[in-house]
Amino acid sequence: ESGEWQRALRAQFPILTGHPDLAYLDSAATAQKPQAVLDAVQTYLTTTNANAGRGTYPWANRTTSLVEETRDRVRRFLRDPDPERSAVHFTSGTTEGLRTIARDWLPGFLVDGDEIVVPVADHQANIEPWLETQRQLARQGTHVRVLPMPYQQASGDYDHTVLARLAGPRTRFVAVTHVHHVYGGDMNIPRIREAVGPDAVICLDAAQSIGHLPVSLAGLDVDFVAFSGHKALALPGSGAVWARQARGPRFVPGGWSGTPHTVGIVSLAAALDWLEAAGTDRIERWTVALASRLTDGLRHLDAYEILGCQTSLAADSPVQRRQGIVTFRHREIGSGDLGFILFSHGFMVRCDQHCQGSAGESSESVRVSLHVYSTVEEIDRLLSVLATLG
Ligand code: PMP
User: Fold this and answer.
1) Domain end point (choices 277, 303, 323)
2) Which residue ranges does the record assign to the Aminotransferase class V domain (predicted)?
3) Treating both helix axes as pointing N-terminal to C-terminal, what angle do 376-388 and 335-344 enclose, rounded to 10 degrees?
């Protein structure tokens, strides 16, 4: 039954149906686009295209409304419990979103002697902006301490023991990732809130969770969410920051002073509609099942070592659930060579250090990342090719 459901969805991705001999397994880098997103872009450009926030004729007014409607669309998609008070700001992706928070908002929130938590094995996009804030404030004589939050292999999550030991009353800002882009773990955000208390601001890098699993702000006590539209089936260069506006100063970036990426915003609304209709809960079940199939297969192949949590993928286990990202290495073949061999068999995977922060150990590894269009057949074919290299 879920096979039928998935085949019908996969058939809506023209780039995939057009290349039946290739397997796109790099969705954590960027996702493919369904026909509905391509149609929304085409329709907008052929019926409505104008600039937003200026102009008084129908196309311009309609463009302005589409941008505003998409802000509400993002809030609904995230199950925003207080949409009257939140802000949605469009960005080119997660990197720009996190940088905007770090540059425009965080310096006005922190005072001398405050501490910020930075996860050292995360994506660089969730490390460097916070260190830059620290440097910027130091130049003005405000000294902020960085508490490095480690990742723990055994649990597939952050090291919550270390965080609980480090965090104190001066810990006012915490950067975390929702789903780790190398290890695939679904990080325990409620435990972060427990460790840092009710007053700290939590900023969530949701690049690998939005569009892959249901994300409900009602159940996550966080203040900022940054994500990339292009990883959630929308066009490249689209993304957003959601800001709760409850702790600290208001988040007021940009406004209408520049031309927004209207086509990207239109594509984002269409992508969120498509994802909601498909069901993010079903998408999650599908990609988690494929990732389990891949890790189970890899565990039987002695030549490979899986990075991140090895033990269990069960939803009720004490280790974190693995989402649709599996990173592994061959004990003898380097990742560049392995990537080359895999592409000769039609597999597109990521093989480098995955933009991971300095404390990461993902160099020389291959990352397979999935989305709703990924198939059981692709995983089985990949495993049989990997087995021949064992
Ligand atoms: N954070 C994480 C966890 C990511 O996986 C990525 C993309 N690989 C980013 C941030 C950066 O996203 P973007 O390139 O869309 O800005």
Assistant:
1) 277
2) 24-382
3) 120
